[in-house]
Design goal:
Layout: E1 4-8, H1 16-25, E2 31-34, H2 40-46, E3 51-54, H3 72-77, E4 82-85, H4 88-91, H5 97-109, E5 113-118, H6 122-126, H7 130-142, E6 154-157, H8 180-197, E7 203-207, H9 215-220, E8 226-229, H10 236-247
Parallel strand pairs: 1-2, 1-8, 2-3, 3-4, 4-5, 5-6, 6-7, 7-8
Helix pairs in contact: 5-7, 7-8
The structure holds phosphoenolpyruvate.
Phosphoenolpyruvate (PEP) binds at residues 8, 158, 163-165, 207-210, 228-232.
Subunit structure: Homodimer.
Main location: cytoplasm
GO molecular function: triose-phosphate isomerase activity
């Protein structure tokens, strides 16, 4: 399978018109675009080669009295194929592993491919707890999945300290985002082993300040099946160059 560039637009851009422009500039076969909910139909229409994703969902797969929530089936009905779950910005708002596990199950139940985000914050990394943190995040979700789901799941390892737009809780940054991809490979290998010991198969993405400068490095690791890109995916020219870089 070709390695994928996943464009997480977060709460951007401001208008549908801008979303359509950005979608057209990001439209390549190895790209998955994750716009905010209101722009999903327009972006779906604008994309000819790229695949559509959503940034979150609610765990109840059917319609119901859940004000403000969006179901897996509703997302599917507008052409969504992938869904990000447990992103660090949702975890920062209080989302817990148990809820994340329910969301992953809801996605799989209707045939959406979940991108399960895991990753430690700076203090956990500095305390030598990165592996323990990520192990728990992953194990809680995987232990609740039916065997048939294996292979249809992406795990995005995103060390929170390497995500460019996340305010760091400690002012002094002893680790830089440049070091993150190389450091991540060790942890991804650990997760691959962990997953294989419970007879599972998943694909792994790296996320955290991936841009034009480091995308080749990230795609060069055999352990990594693609990248989840935030900030750089909003810059049409840079993202267009990144697509070219990884396609040649
Ligand atoms: C993200 O939020 O998933 C992300 C990786 O963001 P950025 O590329 O801006 O670090």
């Amino acid at each position: 399978m070709k390695k994928l560039l996943m464009a997480n637009w977060k709460m951007n851009p401001k208008t549908e018109k801008e979303a359509i422009r950005l979608a057209k500039a990001s439209d390549a076969a190895n790209v998955v675009v994750y716009p905010p909910f209101p722009f999903l139909p327009a972006v779906a229409k604008a994309l000819k080669k790229a695949t559509l994703g959503a940034q979150d969902l609610f765990w109840e797969a059917e319609t119901g009295p859940y004000t403000g929530e969006v179901s897996a089936r509703e997302l599917k009905s507008v052409g969504v194929e992938y869904v990000i779950i447990g992103h660090s910005s949702r975890r920062a708002l209080g989302e817990k592993d148990e809820v994340i596990a329910k969301k992953v199950q809801a996605a799989l139940s209707v045939g959406l491919v979940p991108i399960l985000c895991v990753g430690e914050v700076l203090e956990e990394r500095e305390a030598g707890r990165a592996q323990e943190v990520v192990d728990k995040q992953l194990r809680t979700v995987l232990s609740q999945l039916p065997l048939v789901a294996h292979g249809q799941l992406f795990v995005a390892y995103e060390p929170v300290w390497a995500i460019s737009t996340t305010p760091h809780s400690s002012g002094l940054q002893s680790l830089s985002a440049e070091e993150a991809p190389a450091k991540s490979v060790e942890l991804i290998r650990y997760m691959q082993h962990m997953v294989s010991t419970i007879q599972m198969e998943t694909k792994f993405l790296y996320g955290g300040s991936v841009n034009l400068k480091n995308v080749q490095e990230v795609f060069g690791y055999d352990e990594i099946d693609g990248a989840l890109v935030g900030g750089a995916s909003l810059k049409a020219a840079e993202f267009g160059k990144m697509i070219k870089e990884v396609s040649t």
